[in-house]
Amino acid sequence: MSLFKRGNIWWTRFTTPNGERIRESTGTDDRKQAQEYHDRLKAKYWEVQKLGEKPERSWQDAVLRWLDETSHKASQHDDIHHLRWLDPYLGTLSLNSITRDQIDQLITQRKSEGVSNATVNRMLAVIRAILRRASLDWEWIDKIPRIKLLPEPKRRIRWITREEAAALIKDLPEHLAEMVRFSLATGLRQANVTHLEWSQVDLERRVAWIHADQAKARKAISVPLNAEAVLVLRRQLGKHQTRVFTYHGKPVIDVNTKAWRHALKRVGIEDFRWHDLRHTWASWHVQNGTPLHVLQELGAWESVEMVRRYAHLGQNHLASYAESLCQLQAVPDTILAQQAGRQ
């Protein structure tokens, strides 16, 4: 029999044209409805295998596979945030039914909540990435809607001067001041500083390392320690067996505290986040003449484009060319002066 009961629920059982055995619950205790479900399911398998039609895949199917395949991403929690917002709008849809009009409606709805174009674009990037993989890699769908990102204003690089940094460090509690000193000496991201362990530090060789699963790009990072970084680390010795940076004997988890915000306010530094310490480190390097390709390796950026954001801060190599124009202009000026003297 193609239909049989388990408890009160009807189940369907049949063999597909390629010999695959299917056994599936119809989800109903009504025999007529169960028969209809069986007939549709059997016809669907026949169309897929005999006519070459692709089975209908849902947005939910794609999301689950996407999350499984991108579990290595350091920023997956950001993807999940956007996917949760999208679920009420796309959760019940098949991939083939997602159109450009629906994408536009999502954009309108998201913007009505007062978020920036950058936030909308991060959401659109997740949708586009999932649909592209469903089409190109998984071959679940033949085509996808064109998704165009919204324009974003180019943000300036926020950094502070050495004088401002010194004032901030002086005003912070000692444990945060030490972490700021270390961040400005190494350029490490916030999580890499707060989670740094003694097993990742070699003071004799003056090097630290970030394991691949701790790095944003999922590649291990070797961190050279300058004199300032070494001094900071030596002052932390003996405070904790495992973690480097602690407060009252416990590892520091959060740095965006009232103490941090109040110190910024007291010294008059506005619009400055902890991550801007990394921007400051990079800006100081460029101003000091560090070549961009060296800075890229020091900061573990994947592309040189990420480093070019700081290029305008260090154009000393162009000074000689700019000065040469003065020398060219000086020639006719001298000639004119001599001519005026003869008159």
TrEMBL record:
UniProt keyword annotation of DNA-binding present: yes
PANTHER family, alphabetized: PHAGE INTEGRASE-RELATED, PROPHAGE INTEGRASE INTD-RELATED
Core-binding (CB) domain residues: 57-135
Family from the record: Belongs to the 'phage' integrase family.
Tyr recombinase domain residues: 155-323
Keywords: DNA integration, DNA recombination, DNA-binding
Listed name of the protein: Site-specific integrase
Superkingdom: Bacteria
InterPro entries: CB (IPR044068), DNA_brk_join_enz (IPR011010), Integrase-like_cat_sf (IPR013762), Integrase_catalytic (IPR002104), Integrase_recombinase_N (IPR010998), Tyrosine_recombinase_XerCD (IPR050090)
Pfam hit, one: Phage_integrase
